[in-house]
Each structure stands twice: as structure tokens, then as C-alpha cells.
Amino acid sequence: MSVLYLAALLLVIGCMALIDHRYRLFFWRDARRAAIVLVAGVVFFLVWDLFGIGLGIFFRGETAIMTGILLAPELPLEEPLFLAFLCYLTMVLITGIERVLSKRAGVRR
User: Where are the domains of the chain?
Assistant: First the structure.
């Protein structure tokens, strides 16, 4: 049992939060709306995962860097954190690209 993957996920989520804070892209732009979007994304993908697990499509990969803790059959502890990172990264990228494109067009936000 290892916490390496869990620690890496927490580290990259923290780094994403620093980028978000520096440029005020997602949570630091509108925390309430950002929380709703992030939770909705994570719930959507968790439901997707659970359906995939139930249908026998998704399986947990056994690696030495994971904790081995399961939240449900075939659903490791790290999965919700990975999904949160994935959704957070997507929203920071979208809002960052939107800001760059709007500055190129001369629109201030």
C-alpha cells in the first residue's frame, strides 16, 4: 500500500489552485459557480464510472503506487480526486484560453 499516486494528485490539484489564484480563472473568479460546475462534473463522471463498473467495462488497475482503498467495488479512493483534477484542469484551461483570446480581440474581462 502506497500513497504516492494520492499525494501526486493532491500536489497537482494544489498547483492548479495556484495557477487559478494567480490569474483568477475559475474559483477565484466566482467561487460559488466554480464549485457547482466542479461538483457537477465530478458527480457526472463518478456516475459514468459506476455504470461502467456495473456493466463490467471498467476495472481497477492494481499498482504499487495506489493506496488499495476502495470506495466501491473496482472504484479506488484516488478516482474521485483524479476526476476533480480532470474537471478543474479543464475549467482552468477553458477560462485561460478564453482570456487569451479575448485579450487578442481587444475585449477586457
Answer: 4-96
